[in-house]
Amino acid sequence: MEDSTLVEIKNLTVWYRVYGGLLRVLDGVNLSVARGQKVGIVGETGCGKTTTVKAILRILPKNAVVPEGTIMFQGRNVLKMRGRELQELRGQGIAMVFQDPTAALNPVFTIGQQIMEVIKYARPGGKAKEWREMAVRALKEAALPDPERLMENYPFQLSGGMRQRVCIAMALATARTLLIADEPTTNLDVTIQDQVLRLVRRLVEEKGTSLILITHSLGVAREMTDLVYVMYAGTMVEVAQTDELFDNPLHPYTLGLLQSIPKLTGGGVTQGIAGRIPDYANPPPGCRFAPRCDQAMPICSERKPALFDAGGGHQVACWRFAAGGEAVA
Predict the structure, then answer these.
(1) Other residues' Cβ atoms within 10 Å of the Cβ of residue 212
(2) Residues 42, 215 contacting (CB under 8 angstroms)
(3) Is this model's pTM higher than 0.85 or not?
(4) Ramachandran area for residue 106 (φ above 0: left; ψ -120 to 50: alpha; else beta)
(5) Are 169 and 97 in contact (CB under 8 A)?
(6) Which stretches of the chain are DSSP H helices?
(7) Per-domain residue ranges for the chain?
(8) β-strands 178-182, 94-97: how paired?
(9) In this predicted model, what pLDDT tens digit does every residue of 101-148 receive, in sequence order?
(10) Which CATH fold topology does 5-321 show?
(11) Binning pLDDT at 50, 70 and 90, where does residue 325 land?
């Protein structure tokens, strides 16, 4: 029986070298994605979501250090890949849609030139006519009008929503096993956001592609994903099937995120979570959320909690659930 696991990250640690020393951003991240599964990563800005997925593609900046951990993709260790293996990973295995399509597209090349270059990179043995046909087909699948004409346009001639659709078309122009979408609806108005998210979901389901979706929006995660990882300050604090997470949130941080969502029924301004993400140059010992947690115990500031099993595949990194899923005094 073939292993259904596509991506397996174990104990991933990532630091950044800066003038003042080291920023210890990722602190033992664990993440798993099955074939055909849609996984969401949610959390505040600056908690390490983008760093995690950039590590999967090996596109971290030069000042990044990976002192520990493994990233397995289809049974191969990404951190040990070189040359042709990396080219195959980025050209055929994994595609990424970045949050800013304006920065992702080169302003001096036409849309057609850029998509064909992506296809050429993934299928170097093909011909120009074949690459063009694939590019037009990708634009059509992305629900873009008049793809033949669009091939001759430059990015500045398109709206933000159309540019993001072009990025999605580029990502899925060739067969991919995994799509990473990093806040794909940033800077788009609400109606266009919905259209882009529906497009992503339709394409990954039609092509059988796995999805990692990074989002600040818990509502988007609930609609788009099968499994949700809640991330805080470089650690995964809760993992559960999407319905289970929203029906039965356990970690104090997850509860705080859910309580921060404005309600359509009114009832006053939401409270939010007091405090801020810790300084990565000098992170607190133990649980990184402890300084902001109203349920913290002495052990929380002394030892980092593992992901404890709360039953039914629900895991939570909180000392209150250390005793087989039951809260400890």
Answers:
(1) 26
(2) yes
(3) yes
(4) beta
(5) no
(6) 49-57, 84-88, 101-104, 111-122, 128-141, 147-150, 160-171, 190-207, 218-224, 242-247, 252-259
(7) 5-321
(8) parallel
(9) 888 899 999 999 999 998 888 877 778 889 999 999 999 998 899 999
(10) Rossmann fold (3.40.50)
(11) very low
